[in-house]
Each structure stands twice: as structure tokens, then as C-alpha cells.
Write a structure and sequence with these properties.
The complex is a heterodimer of chains A (about 350) and B (about 550).
Chain A lengths: L4 H13 L11 H32 L15 H30 L6 E8 L2 E5 L5 E3 L1 E5 L4 E7 L4 E5 L4 E5 L5 E5 L5 E7 L12 E6 L1 H10 L6 H11 L2 H4 L18 E3 L5 E3 L2 H9 L22 H13 L4 H12 L13
Parallel strand pairs in A: 1-5, 4-10
Antiparallel strand pairs in A: 1-2, 2-3, 5-8, 6-7, 6-9, 9-10, 11-12
Chain B lengths: L30 H5 L4 H29 L10 H20 L2 H15 L7 H24 L12 H5 L4 H28 L12 H33 L12 H35 L6 H15 L14 H28 L9 H24 L1 H7 L3 H31 L5 H28 L13 H31 L39 H15 L1
Helix pairs in contact in B: 2-3, 2-4, 2-5, 2-16, 3-5, 4-7, 4-9, 4-14, 5-7, 7-8, 8-9, 8-10, 9-10, 9-12, 9-14, 10-11, 11-12, 12-14, 12-15, 14-15, 15-16
The chains are: A alpha+beta (about 350), B mainly alpha (about 550).
Amino acid sequence: MGISPVLWQFLVKWLNASALFPREASTIAPYMDALYFFLLGMTVTGVILVGAIVTTFSLRYRKSKSPVATQIEGSTLLEATWTIIPLGIFLVAFVWGALLYFRIYTPPINSMNIYIVGKQWMWKAEHPGGQHEINALHVPTGQPIQLTMISQDVFHSFSIPEFRIKREVIPGRYSTVWFQATTPGEYHLFCTQYCGTNHSVMIGTITVLSPSDYKKWTEESTSGMSLAQNGERLFASMGCNACHSGNAAARGPNLAAVYGSKLQLTNGSSVLVNEAYLRDAILNPSQHVTAGYAPIMPTYQGQISEDGLIDIVEYLKTLNTNYRVQQTLTTSQSDQAAPPASGVVKP
Amino acid sequence: MKEHDNSILRLPDQATAQVPKKNFITAEDGLMSWLLTGDHKRIAMLYLFSITFFFFIGGAFAGLIRLELLTPMPDLVASDTYNKLFTMHGVIMVFLFLVPSVPATLGNFLIPIMLGARDLAFPKINLLSWYLYIIGGTLTLTALVLGGVDTGWTFTTPLSTHYLNTHVVTTATAIFIAGFSSIFTGLNFIVTIHRMRCPGMTWFRMPLFVWAHYAASILMVLGTPVLAIAIVLVALERTIGIGVFDPTKGGDPLLFQHLFWFYSHPAVYIMILPGMGVISEVISTFSRKRVFGYTAVAFSSVAIALFGFFVWEHHMFIMGVSNYSALVFSLLTMLVAVPSAIKIFNWAFTLQKGSITFETPMLYAFGFMGLFTIGGLTGVFLGSLGMDIQLTETYFIVAHFHFVMVGGMLMAFLSGVHFWWPKMTGRMYPEALSKLAAVVTFIGFNLTFLPQFILGYLGMPRRYHSYPPEFQILNVMSTAGATVLGIGYLMPVIYLAWSLKYGAVAGDNPWQATGLEWQIQSPPLTENFTEIPIMDHEAYDYEWLEHKTAHEVTTVG
């Protein structure tokens, strides 16, 4: 056969790499693909239907066969038909899509939380055990993973096509998405929101490991400090403990066990304390004054990075007693020299 | 006169026929007679030349983008340059080509004539619109020459306000000014349609082309000011840091997108509705039949305009908006898809029992119907909340809106330009060559954009300068298609220019169409009608036309 080698290579490459659909690597993926095939079926049917009507009429009523047109006003019955049937199909697409949307954006309560910080032009992942990764994320199979994400500068978007998930990463606001990986392997991570010069290299690799491999990985790549331990250090070094000491006479409210509680504010509203509230209260304290306290806390806007905020938030989530806060405070007061980085690692 | 079995074209005897000596083109001479004209037809011609100019600039950028994406590596231009290319492509194509395309050229030319009026309600404001457009266009080119802008045509904050050092304010000013051009055009149309209809021209005797423009004009007048506000806020945020969108100052970065899409989603309908108007006229003429379900088609235009205002949030489903508001906007998005389906089926059934011929405008109209059906139905994918998560911000969305805007609107524009070319210039375009162009465009278009749907589901993000190598084959196909498409778009420019001098003399009504514009000479007189007509029949009344023609023959013969 006289096929040119270039064309032949192209064909071989084509056949090897001609995936029409991405791999299904999460528990969501089969649900997404089912809806995709439904919508694809709808489109193909619709196009064939319109094509068939136009072709048939064009052949049957072309001028040579039908020299004189018969005028037709219209037909209410037909109008109703092609209003109601498409509407019905579109409503199925609406309900189906809505169910899937709620599934993807409602994390199960037993999911493991990993923080993602996006910035021009890299992804930082922070595991609860203190493992840090850049443009990479290691996750185990069989475990729901919740990502709590925030951007340090502009809008980014966190997309893993093989998992069929994507969520905008917004400056100044936490957004979440979850997935449960099913197949070990390596997958693409893309930033899909245009974010400036190097938008197209803000990519990374998601590595899915079996639970035992994942355990091995966490042990090998730990930095020795969990997020909460980093947070405890920051809490002391930024002087938070001076006011939030838990003493009855302290100038700031007691923060032990504050996470998850309902808080009464001076402006009369009551709020549920979650990650977003804690972050906002640090950056914008005058808007979030707990009832009974004076609005004297300075803003920490610009003094603490998103990573640092995540550490402090994680620390406050684990803070159940003020014992260590007061210990640190006493140590630093009795010894005017810089505190030995209070981060004596918790056993 | 000769008549073929497969054509309705009826031209005067070429041996004796001449383009009328007195018409709006020959009425006055000199550059100033064009630059200071109040004649809607001359302004339409000014627009036609200017938007064609910008179309080819925008098209050149598209060509460079496709050339860069031929290989996975970023090897043709630098990343910043690539970002500027797609930004300028978007800005020019949306604001300087698609928005004014059909309304400012064909609409401007035809609406007064279709209504039996001598001009638009405000001829001087009409000229002002063109000047504003030209100022906007010149500023855009200025920004381009000074170094370009790389915000993306969506100007997403805080990227556009705090992180880029390119000519954002210049481009924003350009869009602001061009926006007023579109507001004035819309206003002019609305007043003209309300106040300038000739005796007997009731609302339901108006051609569907006019109905479609009426709906689009309402969108222009109500939507564009919001874009102007959003753009001004971006400029203020950039220059004096007012902090409306800046989270560190308590602003909301998402607010910009609400404002931007409040205009830019209706803008999609500003772009497509006039195109739909063209299709109604063309399908009716070439099947010799009244448009099936005239009122349904007319009201579906209005329904699209109405619902079109309440779907903007579907651009932001993954951006952390409330899940329940997402539900409402998804439902409304499904509803806005229905009137488009109604139109497609009505056009298809207009063919039934007609006497159909397949001249170039009809071929483009068929192209429109096929491509717009795909474009519309893939829109349902994106309106379906869960599906949107996988598809948004990928090449799927690029393919979807190119099917609607290019496959739909540009096909309709070319259909309309060919259809009314004999009316505007008095001469026919070459039929065989233009049929070839229509087919080439259709093939090139599908080859360019169908692979992008697959790329999108595979997850290739839009606005990527480099991409993983496994996406290359589909990108090569797309670039190959773009080459074919480019040829398809260049052909009409060449043969239409040729036809200005060498085309066959068209006569008043080469298509034997029913619209009032076909009952006057081609090209028309400056005042359109020697006496204001009286509309005593429905739109698309082919029996009336036959009667009239027969009557003329008896009186002459």
C-alpha cells in the first residue's frame, strides 16, 4: 500500500490516543457520564430530526417537483407539540443536572479535608498532617476527600477532568468540592479560569494511591508539624494569646471549643462558627465582634498569608482547652527573651 | 425573462438592463457626502465596510491562535502575546463585529424600507452611532498598537483591576463608547418601529425580520448600560482603587461577574436574534411560502428577549453562588431554550408544501439551521447544573458559543448579505462561486469546532497556550478546519467586490420576494419611496405578489 509514512504514523498515533471520553477515576464520574450520554443522545436525535425534516421537505417540495406552493397559516397542535416535548426533555436535563450538582458540591461528613491555596501560578496543597505539596496532590482511594480552597490573588479554578469535578478558587473566600478516587494512577490537574501570563502552566498531577501506599507516602513526606501545630506557633508568635488567653478578665473572647458553636455578635446577629467565619474574623475583626467585647482587635489583613490563616483555623478547630495557651503565655512572660518557638511538638 | 426549473431568480434582459442612474449611491458624490450623510442606507454601507474590516482583523487573531495550538508546546508566540491574541480576538469579534453585524448593516438598511418609511426616526443619531462605533474601534486598535490587552474579553476582576499592566483602561473606554453606539441604534429602531410604520402596517403585518430587531433593540437599550457601568467600575477600581470588587477592601470580586454577565448574556441574544430575522425572510422567499406559525415565531423572539435577562448566573454555576439560586437560574436557562426550538421547527415546517429552490442565501440558511441546532442543544448541556461542572471553562464552551455565534450568526449574516446584495448594490453576486463558498464555510466550520466538543469533555481548558500532548490530534483537526473556514470567508469578499462592477443587473425583485423593499428599485432612491406605500396585505403574501406582477404585465403589454 502506498500510504505515506507520515500519514501512517498520524493514523497510529490517532488510534492510540483517540480517547473520546476521559477515564472514569472517581465515584462521581459514572454519574456524570450517564448524564452526558443522555444529553448527547438528545443532541444527536434533535439534529437528525431537524436534518431529516429539512432534507425530506427539500426533496419532496423542490421546485421541479412542486412548482406551486400551498400556503399554510400554521398549526396550533404542531406548535404545542414542539413546545411541550422539548420543554419536557429540557426539564429532565434540569432535574438530572441539579441532582448531580448537589451530589458534587455536598461533601459527606466523614470526608478528609485537604486545603488548597491557589496563587499565580501554582497550586499548594496542605494535608492535615502537615504534608505540603506544590502542583501535586496525593490522595488515597476509597476515602471521600474534601478540598477547602482559597486563592491568594485572582480567580483560579481547580479542575480534575478524570474525576469530573471542578470548582472556582476565589480570592478571599473558601470554596469546597469533594471526590472519592477509585483507581490508582496519575491524573491531570488544570487551572481552568484564565489567571494571567502562565495560566496554561498552572497545572499539576493528582496521584491516587491505594490506602496502604498513601499511608506510606504520608509518613515519608511529613514535615514533622501538623497544620494545627503550625497554627499554635503562629497563634503565639503573632501575640493572639495575649488577649485570647481564656482568662475571665481577658480582652478577647475565649476561643477554646469555639469552632462549631453558635456565637452572639454585638450587632445582634448570631453566627455559626466555621472555617470561613474564623478566617473573616481574623482579617476583618471589626465586622465580627463577639457580644460583650470591645472592638479593639486590629485587622491582620496583609500580615498573614492564606497558608498561615489555614494553620490558625486548623489550630482553633482542635483547640478544646486553654491549658497550653496559658502555659505558653506564662513561659514567654517569665522569660522576656523570644519564646523558644512554643512549638514543642505535641506528642 | 427566463425561468429555470431549479431557480426562482428572474433577472431583466441583460442586453438592455441597467442599474438605475438615480439611486442612493449616485445621489451625491464625494467623501463628505458619505461622512455627513443622514441616509440610513449609506450609514448601513459605512457599517458594512467597517465591520468587515474588523472581522478580518479579529479573524487574523483567530488564525494565529489556531496556528499556535497546532503543537502542544508554546512555540509560536510568548504566553503574554497568546493571551493578548485571544483577548483582542474576543473583544473585536464581540463588540466590533457580532453586536453591530446584522442590525447595523442589514437592519439599518432594511427596517425603514420594510416599514414603508423614508428613514429611521433619528437619522443624525444614526450617524452618531457610526461615529461612536468608529471611535470605539479606533481606540481598540490604539490599545492594540500600544501593546495590546490581556484580560480576556470578560475582564474578570481582580485580574483586570490589580494584576495586569496592559492597556485595560483604553480598551474599557473603547467598549464603553462602542456600547453607546449600540444603545443609540437600539433606541432608533424601537422608535422607528413604534412611530414610523406606513398606513396599514399593523404589528402583525411586519416582516419577522423587524420583530427580531425589535426584540434585540430592547435588549440593547436595557442591557448595554449595565455593561457600561461595570466597565466604568473596573476603570475606577484600576485608577483610583474604589474597592467595589477588591476583597481586601471589603469588595466582592464576584459582583463584577454578575454585572458583566447581566449584559453579556443578553448580548448573546442581541447577536443571534437579528440573524434569526434574516433566516425567516430567506426561508420564506425560497420556499414561496408564508412563514409557518408567524405569531409563534414573532412571540418567540420577544420571549427570548424577556427570558434572556434572567439567566445570567448560568455563567457562574461553579463560582460558589448559592446552590438554590443556581437551581432557579438553571430552570430559567432551560426555559429560554424552548423559544429557539420553536423557531427551528417553524422554519423547518415552512418548507412543507413549498416550492423550494436552493440559491446561496438558502444554503447559508440551511447551514444556520443545522449549526444553530447543535449550538442550542449543547447549550442545554451547560444549563444542566451537574454537567456544567465538567464542561464549563473548557473547549466545550468555546465550541458551543462558536456554533451559536459563528455557525449561527455569521451564517445568517452571510445569508442576508447575499440575499439583499442585489437590493443594496443593484447587481447579482456570482451564483456558482458563492454556492461553493457556502459549502466550504460549512465544512470548514464543522471541522474546526466539532473536535473542540470532544476536547472539552476530555477536559482541555480554554485560553491555554500549551496543552498536554494527548490533545494534539484533535487540535490539529481544528486548525486544519480553521484554514478551510478562512478560505470560505475570504471568497465572498473577493467575488462580492467583483460583482460591484461585473455582476448581472438585478432588477427590482430578482427573488420575487414579497417584502416592501423588493417593490422598489435596486439600489433604492435616497428617499426609498416616491410615495409612501399602503400596506394592504399580510407579510409573506405570495398571492398578492403574483396578482401585482400579473397586473403589471397586463398594463405594460
